[in-house]
Design goal:
By secondary structure, the protein is of the alpha+beta class. The chain has helices at about 10-20, 25-45, 85-95, 110-115, 130-140, 145-155, 155-170, 195-205, 210, 275-290, 330-340, 350-355, 365-370, 440-450, 455, 485-495; strands at about 55-60, 65-70, 105, 125-130, 220, 225, 240-245, 250-260, 265-270, 380, 430-435, 460-470, 470-480, 505. It has 16 helices and 14 strands. It is globular, with a radius of gyration of 25 Å. The protein has two domains: about 55-340, DD-peptidase/beta-lactamase superfamily (Beta-lactamase, 3-Layer(aba) Sandwich), CATH 3.40.710.10; about 350-505, Alpha-Beta Plaits (2-Layer Sandwich), CATH 3.30.70.
Length: about 500
């Protein structure tokens, strides 16, 4: 058997035997053939939904009904805030049915008000208009608003979740189950890239008027302006929606609708390592496949519709439903793309120690030094020149205050420590678990880590720290208040066992 240590000193006998074996042209050819077969077989094995297997992608030509690219398209994933697409779908249905109008006030319950960020910080007993709720879900991705919509339309969030799943089945989302209206962590809430594309297309075709809300760049509510988390709007030609999502279990998700040069794509990327890498990958898929998409037949004035299992006749006789499953054989087009668009790579164990893959914060010099260490990485003054880990500005930053709950059932809500606006002045040792260009995601990471790391973080101060990198702002996700290096290191060790990435620094 070939071993990784074959070429190390002391194994000269094995090396001699191998060289002798390969000296025969026939044996060498057999070995090459065997390795080729094993490589191909490995490439065809499906990936699981493990922490290292979050990635999935799907690109669909909505005009012709062709799948242009798919990777892990039917593997179960966590939708995160993509869930709010279905929440909006049911709200649009209610508008069409006349159950509500854009000015209808939705009452906020104490449970809805207690939802963790991202949120509008609605007060229990207050109301929010339907139109404002729509815009808050699309731009701010507000969890308190999602629960408010659910409770007002169905009486409870659990009842609303059942309606969401029922609607999913009716439009052909065969592998999706919804457990809440927001996308907050719930192990029973799962979907696939193919199903999310189906949902995005159905929103576009069944609610074309309301779909225009997804192109909203910013939304003002009670004097505060909120920008859309979808950063492809206005940056990638033809993109007119629709939704981003993030929880730690899912990675960074995005569903995108593109209409350009009489072509129409619906694309999905799930499991990005960061908001930036997800957006870059999505932009690459769009740029490649918009050219291959079919122009719409100008004689056809109606968008092709997704077939819905509602018992009603289709509105358009030339509809192009999404395929329900991956064909047994691998399509030539898919095989061609596998090499061109490799998935966002999983984090290697050795890279995890250096925090390079998890935190895009260390430059190559520091990464190389860190990778050679066998223990945790200690970031000290030698990293002072790195803008992502050096001491940040003391300028105030708009930070949400958070609360959290673990289930959709009405229950007492456990509240984590208040998120600080800046690092405490008396802070000595601190830890950093991530750095992201998405402030809402940064806050959600702090909420999740506060809950999962209670044993070591109960008395610590969670905070985000902004830093400029070129024209972008990144947010370090940190906890302060550790007495010394040992307690900070122990906290990192604990969080790493929970699958977090962590560095400790002074």
């Amino acid at each position: 058997m070939l071993r990784s240590g074959l070429l190390t000193p002391g194994l000269s006998l094995e090396l001699t035997v191998l060289i002798g074996y390969l000296s025969s042209p026939l044996r060498k050819a057999r070995l090459v053939f065997l390795l080729s077969v094993l490589t191909i077989a490995a490439s065809l094995m499906p990936q699981t939904a493990s922490a290292e297997g979050k990635y999935a992608a799907f690109v669909y030509d909505a005009n012709k009904g062709d799948v242009l690219f798919e990777r892990n398209a039917d593997s179960l994933r966590y939708p995160a805030s993509l869930t709010k697409m279905m929440t909006l779908y049911l709200l649009f249905d209610a508008l069409d049915a006349g159950k509500v109008d854009l000015s209808t006030p939705l009452r906020v319950s104490s449970r809805a008000a207690s939802m963790p960020p991202s949120k509008l910080y609605l007060k229990a007993g207050s109301t929010i208009r339907v139109k404002d709720a729509i815009l808050a879900l699309i731009t701010k991705s507000a969890n308190d608003v999602a629960v408010t919509v659910a409770e007002n339309l169905a009486g409870s969030e659990s009842a609303f979740a059942k309606q969401m799943t029922s609607k999913a089945r009716s439009i052909g989302m065969t592998r999706t189950t919804f457990a809440n209206a927001s996308g907050l962590p719930n192990p029973h809430q799962r979907t696939t890239a193919r199903d999310m594309a189906r949902l995005g297309l159905s929103l576009r075709t069944e609610h074309p008027r309301d779909f225009n809300y997804f192109s909203t760049r910013s939304f003002s509510y009670k004097g505060v302006s909120y920008g859309n988390h979808n950063r492809l709007l206005g940056r990638v030609g033809g993109v007119n929606g629709i939704k981003t999502g993030y929880i730690r279990a899912s990675g960074f998700n995005l569903v995108t609708n593109v209409e350009k040069d009489n072509r129409h794509l619906v694309a999905v990327v799930l499991g990005g390592e960061s908001g930036r890498s997800r957006d870059q990958h999505m932009a690459s898929l769009i740029n490649r496949y918009i050219k291959k998409a079919s122009p719409k037949d100008r004689r056809n004035k109606v968008e092709p519709l997704l077939v819905a299992n509602t018992g009603q006749s289709a509105k358009n006789p030339t509809e192009h439903p999404l395929p329900l499953a991956v064909p047994p054989s691998i399509e030539k087009a898919q095989a061609e793309v596998l090499a061109a668009f490799a998935p966002i790579p999983p984090i290697r164990p050795e890279a995890e120690r250096a925090l390079v893959a998890a935190l895009p914060t260390l430059d190559k010099t520091h990464a190389g030094k860190a990778a050679s260490q066998s223990g945790p990485v200690v970031v000290v003054a030698s990293l002072a020149g790195n803008p992502l880990v050096e001491q940040g500005s003391n300028a105030p930053v708009e930070i949400d205050r958070s609360q959290t709950t673990k289930s959709i059932a009405p229950a007492a809500v456990e509240q984590p420590a208040e998120i600080a606006e800046t690092a405490p002045e008396d802070s000595n040792w601190k830890i950093q678990i991530s750095a992201t260009d998405d402030l809402s995601a940064a806050k959600e990471m702090l909420v999740e880590a506060s809950q999962e790391g209670k044993a070591v973080l109960a008395s610590k101060t969670p905070y985000t720290e902004p830093v400029q990198k070129g024209s972008s702002t990144l947010y370090r996700v940190r906890f302060a208040g550790f007495e010394d290096q040992d307690t900070a290191r122990q906290a990192c060790d604990f969080l790493k066992r929970k699958k977090y990435k962590c560095i400790y620094l002074n």
